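Class prep. Protein, please:
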Amino acid sequence: MYSPDQNTKKEYIMAFKKLINFKTLSSAFAAMLLFTTNMVMAQDTAQTATTLSTDDAAKSAMWIGVGYYVLLVLLLAVIIGIVGKILRVYDLTQQIQGKKSMNWNNILGVMFIIFLIVGLYGAYWSFTVQGAMLLPEAASIHGVKTDTMFYVTFGITVTVFVITQILLFGFSFRYRATGKRKAYFYPHNNTIEKIWTVVPAIVLTILVITGFFTWKEITNSVDAKGSPASIDIDVTGHQFAWELRYPGKDGKLGAKNYRLVTGTNKLGINYQDKHSFDDLAADTLVIPVNKSIRLNILAQDVIHSVYMPHFRLQLNAVPGLPTFFKFTPTITTADMRSKVDNPKFEYLLYCNKICGGGHYNMQKVVRVVTDAEYNQWLSKQKPYLNDQLKKELKMADNGQTKQAAPNRLALNN
């Protein structure tokens, strides 16, 4: 039987004392206890404080929630450290007594398998529980294509993820060191290199090409031959609202100039352009189903972002950089209300950039209707050229003032 000499025993005893350092463990426990007490007191204060405003209370609750999870992580780390110390002490005790030490390879191998099982269950739980938070049904032509690309990509990556994780942790357990075998030195294999280089390259090429043609359909500024012209709609963002402008009977939007922006002429429409006189203002983004829509996206102050999740539409609105997004809605608001069994359902246009304090409230109702309903709605909209703006332009014609004084808004055309 193995019997360690006197020096070896002394080394084990010193290591044992070092591991069981009462001061260190006491300090760690005291720090954890103090942190826990502070968190409990903070939660009690947040619950009993009645003078805080709603925003302050929300911020306080947010930080308490963050602190709670940080505490859990730290507590878990301390527990793992303590368990590790106990096992190490036990192992040293076994060696001091001349007994067989712990087989750490078996322990780590079992931990790998446990981690694999828990991790795969966590992934399954995430897919089944958090999967309900996916985007709703796509209500545009390109949205269906985008979703198809997403699910194909997701399916491929999840399959590869599951296989590789099972192989990684399974091999770590199956071929853990036992002292009875020697690892085989296998530095290179040309066939394997070719397989895991060529196959991903082919898959990624197909995905990229498919995505390219989908993106080309969205960003193509020229309507396809033989198809009706897209309906041009201006969407201009500023803190904290969206301004909408529709073309009139001529079907064309008038020119704009940022130098012409005033309190009355919010968009800086240039009435030297004849197409500007019948442009229409609207409070709701109403669009006809199965018709190509082109949103001309602009910003007047800071970066905003046009986001319409049901239509898989998002594009930044950047001052000085006009952009556009073309799409074709396929499901009317009425049909979607029936699908989701919610008579109050509305499509919404959000701002998806944190643009300031009122960002959360920067949204517009989007309503998809039939062609007849759209034409009826459009006929009831008032022209952007209202009486107050006419008065301002008349003053300009009389030479009393210029059409619009230069302003400090950022360039947006």
DSSP finds nine helices and ten strands in the chain. Confidence is low (pLDDT under 50) at residues 44-52, 395-413.
